[in-house]
Amino acid sequence: MIILGPLIDVVIIAIDLYIWVVIISAILSWLVAFNVVNTRNRFVYTVGDFLYRITEPALRPIRKIVPSFGGVDITPIVLILGLWFIQRVLAEVLFSIAGAAV
Fold first, then answer.
1. What does the alpha-carbon distance between residue 33 and residue 25 come to, in Å, rounded to a whole number?
2. φ and ψ at residue 72, rounded to 5 degrees
3. Number of alpha carbons in the 13 Å side-chain half-sphere of residue 63
4. How many CB atoms are closer than 10 A to CB 86?
5. Spacing of C-alpha 54 from chain mean position
6. Which residues sit opposite 72 in a β-bridge?
7. Could you give the residue ranges of the DSSP H alpha helices within the chain?
8. Which residues of 35-56 are buried (b: 16+ CB within 10 A; e: fewer)?
9. 11 and 83 in contact (C-beta within 8 Å)?
10. Is the pTM of this model over 0.70?
11. Where are the domains positioned within the chain?
12. pLDDT 10s per residue in the chain (102 long)?
């Protein structure tokens, strides 16, 4: 039980970081779509490619389930909501462990 609490904390922090990566990826995709940034710039391409490789494995299964809404991709929102749900479940587990230890 001593190691489970800190492990859940680390997982919650990792989920927080991944949520920020998903948000940044969505913003960058909008900036590329509206020609605010250009992917011919090597730095922008590298960052975009990295974000795509990190987020696409989680977004691909959701895209198979969620219908398309014209040109709007809501899969990042669905992924973030799912990650928040997982965070809440882990927080409840952490609180129950802390309550049982007292």
1. 12
2. -95, 125
3. 9
4. 13
5. 9
6. 69
7. 4-33, 42-65, 75-101
8. eebeeeeeeeeebbeebeeebe
9. no
10. yes
11. 4-97
12. 678 888 999 999 999 999 999 999 999 999 999 999 999 999 999 999 999 999 999 999 999 999 888 888 999 999 999 999 999 999 999 888 877 765
Instruction: Count CA atoms closer than 13 A to 18's CA, side-chain side.
Output: 23
Question: What pLDDT, on the 0 to 100 scale, is given for residue 68?
Answer: 83
Name the residue with tokens 């990826």.
25
Q: Which structure tokens are listed for 29?
A: 């995709």
CA 8 to centroid of chain Cα atoms:
17
Question: What CA dihedral angle connects 84, 53, 35 and 27, to 10 degrees?
Answer: 10
- Provide the Cα torsion 89, 92, 98, 102; round to 10°: -150
